[in-house]
Amino acid sequence: MTVHPGFPSAAPDTVLDRIAAMKDDIAAAGDEAQRLRHLPTWLVDKLHGAGLMRVCMPTKYGGEALDPMRTVEAIEAVSAIDGSVGWNFMIG
Fold first, then answer.
1. CA torsion sign, 57 to 77 to 27 to 50?
2. Which of 1, 47, 89, 91 is 20 to 30 A from 72, comparing alpha carbons?
3. What backbone torsions phi and psi does residue 51 show, to the nearest 5 degrees?
């Protein structure tokens, strides 16, 4: 797999592990997002840093090319922690 500089290399099955590791951040951001009416920038930066905003991107561009089922599982995992963050994650 070709990974572009700046993107962490990770197999698709580690996406759920990365989401679980960010559980506290996702929960805190959900409360803050309700006040701000958008996701806090710090969480968006962390999602990008963990490679979670490129799960559907083809591997040749540094993404993970998750299949539709794994993509839905990732969205469900984020949404189970906080629904508003999950909604934004799905859109992103």
1. negative
2. 1
3. 75, 15
Total-model pTM? 0.81
3-state SS assignment for residue 42: helix
Give pLDDT tens digits for 25-72: 999 998 899 899 999 999 999 999 999 999 999 999 988 899 999 999
The half-sphere exposure of 24 on its side-chain side, counting CA atoms within 13 A, is 1
Q: Strands of the chain (E only): list them.
A: none
Contact present, 83 and 75 (Cβ < 8 Å): no
For residue 56, give every residue at least 6 positions away whose Cβ sits within 8 Å of its Cβ, in sequence order, or none: 63, 64, 65, 66, 71
At residue 50, the 3 state secondary structure works out as coil
